[in-house]
Amino acid sequence: MIIFLHRKDLRVDDMLAFNYIHAMHKQSLHVLILDPFLLGHERYLEHSGVNFLQHAARLRQLYLEAGQQLHIVYGEPSAVLNTLLAAHPVEELVFHEDSTPYAKQRDRLLRATAEAARVNVTSFDEQALLDLRDFHRWSGRSEPYKVFTPFYRKWSDYRLRFYRPATSVHVSQLATVALAPDAAEAYALPPQLEAALAAGDAEATGGCGSVPGAPDPHSVLRGFLAERLSGYADGRDRFAREATSRLSRHLNVGAISARTVYEALLESEQREVWLRQLAWRDFYIYQSRLDSDYFHYEKRYDLSPLDNRYFQAWSEARTGIPIIDAAMTELNTTGWMPNRLRMVTSMFLTKNLLCPFTYGEQYFRFKLSDYDNVLNRGGWLWCASLGFDAAPYFRIMNPATQSATHDPGADYIRRWLPELAGLSDKQIHLPQAHALVELTASRARAIEVYKGILQSGRK
Ligand SMILES: Cc1cc2nc3c(=O)[nH]c(=O)nc-3n(C[C@H](O)[C@H](O)[C@H](O)COP(=O)(O)OP(=O)(O)OC[C@H]3O[C@@H](n4cnc5c(N)ncnc54)[C@H](O)[C@@H]3O)c2cc1C
Question: Which stretches make up the Photolyase/cryptochrome alpha/beta domain (predicted)?
Answer without folding.
Answer: 1-129
